[in-house]
Write a structure and sequence with these properties.
Elements (H helix, E strand, L loop, with lengths): L7 E5 L4 H11 L3 E6 L21 H6 L3 E6 L4 H12 L3 E4 L5 H5 L3 H7 L4 E6 L14 H8 L19 H24 L3 E6 H8 L1 H8 L21 E5 L4 E5 L3 H8 L12 H4 L1 H12 L4 H10 L3 E4 L3 H4 L3 H6 L2 E6 L3 E6 L23 H7 L4 H10 L2 E2 L4
Parallel strand pairs: 1-2, 1-4, 2-3, 4-5, 5-6
Antiparallel strand pairs: 3-12, 7-8, 8-9, 10-11
Helix pairs in contact: 1-7, 6-8, 7-8
Amino acid sequence: MGILTGYRVVDCTMAMAGPFAALRLGDLGADVIKVEPVKGEWHRFISAGNAMGNRVNTSFLSLNRNKRSLSVDLKAPEGKEVLTALVKSADVFIQNYRPGVAERLGIDYTTLSNINPRLVYVSMSGYGSSGPYATKAGQDLLLQALSGSMLSVGRETDPPAPAGLYVVDAVTAYNAFEGALAGLLYRERTGEGQLVEVNMLDSIVTFQMQELSAFTVGRKPQSRSKEPHGHVYIRAPYGVYETKDGYIVLAYTPLRKLGETIGEPSFAEMDDETDTWARKDEIFAKIRERLKTRSSKEWLEAFAAQEFWAAPVYGYADIVEDPQVRHNGTFVEYQHPTESWVKTPGFAIKFSKAPSKVDRGAPLNGQHTREILRELKYNDKQIDGLIQKGVLAETKL
């Protein structure tokens, strides 16, 4: 039994953040029903790296395992009736429409909580349900730019650079996942559902707890230096350094011992508490020149002997073969009915008594429409009629 076995989640989300949050609930055993338009969620037709797959592309595949698909037109009165019946049986409802859309569709919190007062309703948005940005498009790169984080790394002369992952989407997804769990815990104690609101802007700003507190409380300016330090609010040495055959990272290393190891005598005269801030650029430049003389493997072995904090800079080809990743079981592998053998990132949280698992791969659009409506007490004649009218869509394997 999964931790959330017996709970039903209605997933009315699209793109990354919303589906990712619902996926985590499904990984814990919840019955997640992905409600899609009759033509399918738009993420079915666009994928990271244009990796399209056979019948399910890799982006959709990675974000929608452990879900069933109900394909229904929510603008049709009969489609609204289907959703109403579904909500009556639900514990959690998640949507990430732009503010105002849920109200127009008649699936806002006020409407659905009147149908099911115990419902935990999770509303996700780009900037919040109200305010000057409320109607703007919320997209990862836009929020990275607004977050301030792009100016915490790199040289002062470098242009701002985005992160190499959809960090805002991921952080927002985990906030929504956490909010849903907290809402369920509150309901277990009180019997009451509630509205849980999560937005991308607040998620990425609050994620920078230390950095922004250094600015707002410590009044330290966000000033980039001449050298590409790993972060403006961290002392040297901290960053990425080129070696003879690649790159490694080095962090928080005592200067005297580092100088002895790399052959830099000037570090013996420097102070770890003051010079690592005041002479950041000088320290970085000297480390950079020394590390170019030997291979990454040689430096990493020398640093390991001194217990310095150092690591190689991986690409994806490296991480999937890393021995610790293999040991942890970070990736899961399973047979998908249309995409063959699938290997994808798995479960970040481990439970000793109720481990997460893949019960089903990402569904085809409307693959479970008939199954779900039968559970809602619709008969096959009614279902066939709604399919013929275009209110429902059904896809068979």
